[in-house]
């Protein structure tokens, strides 16, 4: 069901937040994996304590071969407040810098002051760096606002994203806007959409097993190839409006189940009794079950460019 909507994230090294959007209606890329629900700033905050100075190595290929695929990332700042937190991510690619310095001293073997000044200029090359900003603000106990912005020195422009989450008693509502948004198709090619806006309403999993979801998405501007040299962009990314609805019904019946008792979680020793619960809630009751799921998805696309062309053809035909 999630693959038919516009909010499925695929792990990707092309962005500082570590994810790119999946193209709805297409199979997942062969080597693609669903991205973590934890934000990149949260991941770096956790991993930083295990690396010297909080510097974390990363592998992120780029279209410019001289930059190399190796990079180092670090969470530069992570201030937290009572109802908000902020994270600033920095990335540095050392390969081009080292190659430039090596070439500098190869040309001029004399280690004088002008030579060191020329070397210092290479550190100011903005293509070596990337900077990302992530902030989350808690508006109410049930709603929050997420803001993200990132800039890569070797690329033009910035990537911006804003997401509003709101939890209702039995539903989740998400409003998202990104300009531009990065998508990855089934062949692993990346496409940049100038503007992407979506509204999503999904029901929580109920005891009955019935679940439904509804979403509206609007794309503006023609998708541009990010790393593809040939091929047409997916039809779903063309400018226009898309409405998607889906439902599913899941049911499970136990063939056999051994209920957990107090005796299973209480350990008796010479020093007394201790509570020893199962480490996995799904394994605390051995069982055999049969389950099934049924559902359906429907999508309607309104392509603005195609609609205008049809109107123009009809106008020319009847005039």
UniProtKB/TrEMBL annotation:
Q: Which UniProt keywords apply?
A: Membrane, Transmembrane, Transmembrane helix
InterPro entries named in the record: TGD4-like (IPR044160)
Instruction: Give TM regions.
Output: 300-318
The Gene Ontology terms for molecular function here are:
phosphatidic acid binding
The identity of this protein, by name, is Protein TRIGALACTOSYLDIACYLGLYCEROL 4, chloroplastic
Q: What organism is listed for this UniProt entry?
A: Nelumbo nucifera
Listed under GO biological process in this entry are: acylglycerol transport; ER to chloroplast lipid transport
């Amino acid at each position: 069901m999630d693959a038919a909507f516009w909010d499925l994230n695929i792990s990707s090294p092309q962005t500082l937040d570590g994810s790119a959007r999946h193209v709805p209606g297409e199979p997942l890329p062969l080597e693609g994996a669903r991205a973590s629900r934890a934000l990149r700033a949260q991941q770096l905050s956790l991993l930083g304590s295990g690396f010297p100075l909080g510097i974390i190595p990363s592998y992120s290929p780029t279209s410019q071969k001289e930059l190399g695929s190796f990079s180092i990332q670090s969470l530069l700042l992570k201030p937290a407040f009572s109802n908000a937190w902020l994270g600033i991510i920095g990335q540095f690619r050392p390969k081009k810098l080292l190659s430039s310095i090596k070439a500098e001293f190869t040309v001029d073997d004399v280690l004088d002051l002008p030579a060191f000044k020329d070397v210092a200029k290479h550190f100011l090359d903005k293509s070596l760096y990337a900077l990302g900003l992530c902030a989350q603000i808690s508006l109410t106990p049930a709603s929050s606002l997420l803001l993200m912005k990132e800039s890569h020195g070797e690329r033009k422009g910035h990537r911006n994203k804003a997401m509003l989450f709101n939890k209702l008693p039995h539903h989740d509502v998400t409003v998202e806007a990104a300009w531009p948004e990065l998508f990855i198709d089934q062949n692993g090619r990346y496409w940049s959409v100038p503007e992407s806006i979506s509204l999503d309403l999904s029901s929580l999993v109920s005891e009955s097993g019935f679940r439904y979801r509804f979403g509206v998405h609007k794309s503006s501007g023609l998708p541009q190839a990010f790393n593809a040299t040939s091929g047409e962009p997916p039809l779903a990314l063309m400018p226009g409006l898309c409405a998607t609805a889906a439902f599913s019904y899941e049911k499970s019946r136990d063939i056999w189940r051994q209920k957990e008792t107090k005796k299973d979680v209480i350990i008796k020793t010479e020093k007394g009794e201790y509570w020893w619960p199962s480490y996995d809630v799904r394994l605390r009751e051995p069982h055999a079950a049969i389950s099934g799921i049924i559902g359906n998805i429907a999508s309607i696309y309104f392509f603005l460019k195609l609609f205008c062309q049809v109107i123009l053809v009809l106008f020319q035909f009847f005039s």
